[in-house]
Design brief:
The chain contains seven helices and twelve strands. The chain is of the alpha+beta class. The chain has one domain. A three-stranded antiparallel sheet has the order 1-9-8, covered by helices on one side. The chain is globular and about 60 Å long.
Length: 239
């Protein structure tokens, strides 16, 4: 059960955070949230698939790490085997919080029950001896801001996808080298044929709103599905 607290330089003066990778640190996940403003960086490493939120009509985008719950094919022991970590992973155990009214500037919150909370002699400090933010905390705050802004802006992106009916159901079944069958189901992708069929006015409107580039990046990311399959085959083969 998460235990969120507003981060401050008195209560958390001596707090340290583990920044390495590992299943015991919460990295054993099949997918993580990503936002359209991040698609350009994500697509070079991970497939981007869309999923409808449970009980809602809204969609979210997911950077995919594996084929089943608890499987991260980019996690190699205590090493993250990719040149990029999506923001929603990189900011753990921090999050943006707001006053109960929902208005006002965001605050940096921390999950005190997260496994990345380090022992006194481990990890990276958040504040120096004078109570000033360390470079690590400054970087976390910047990433939190990027993720929060990207999430808040994403509503218009999904509205545009739905307005032009550009999402189509997607499933993938792969027979691996050992003969086992693995699948991804319950996801959506951008319908490339419908996107190509849009007239100039519609494309111009999407471009002016900043939505066209993330759509192209999401489509480009699908080439990473074959990379995911290759990683799975290597994992099964002991490589």
């Amino acid at each position: 059960m998460p235990s969120h607290a507003v981060l401050d330089n008195k209560t958390h003066r001596d707090l340290r955070i583990r920044t390495d990778a590992g299943a015991d640190l919460g990295d054993d996940i099949m997918a993580t949230l990503t936002v359209p403003s991040e698609f350009r960086r994500v697509q070079a490493h991970f497939p981007i698939l869309f999923r409808r939120e449970t009980g809602r009509d809204a969609f979210t985008a997911m950077a995919m790490f594996g084929f089943q719950n608890g499987e991260n094919l980019f996690l190699d022991g205590d090493r993250w085997d990719a040149r990029y970590r999506p923001l929603s992973v990189a900011i753990q155990p921090f999050l943006i919080g707001r006053p109960p009214s929902g208005e006002g500037p965001g605050q940096v919150h921390i999950d005190m029950d997260h496994p990345r909370i380090a022992a006194a002699s481990e990890g990276v400090r958040l504040f120096d001896a004078d109570g000033n933010a360390t470079p690590y905390l400054d970087e976390i705050a910047e990433r939190l801001g990027d993720l929060d802004e990207g999430y808040r802006e994403s509503g218009a992106f999904y509205d545009a996808l739905l307005a032009y009916d550009l999402l189509e159901p997607f499933s993938l079944e792969v027979t691996l080298d050992d003969g086992s069958l693995h699948s991804l189901v319950g996801f959506h992708i951008i319908d490339e044929a419908k996107l190509r069929a849009l007239d100039g006015e519609a494309l111009g409107s999407l471009h002016a709103a900043g939505h066209l580039m993330p759509m192209f990046m999401a489509l480009a990311s699908l080439s990473q599905l074959s990379v995911l399959v290759a990683r799975k085959n290597r994992r099964l083969g002991g490589g």
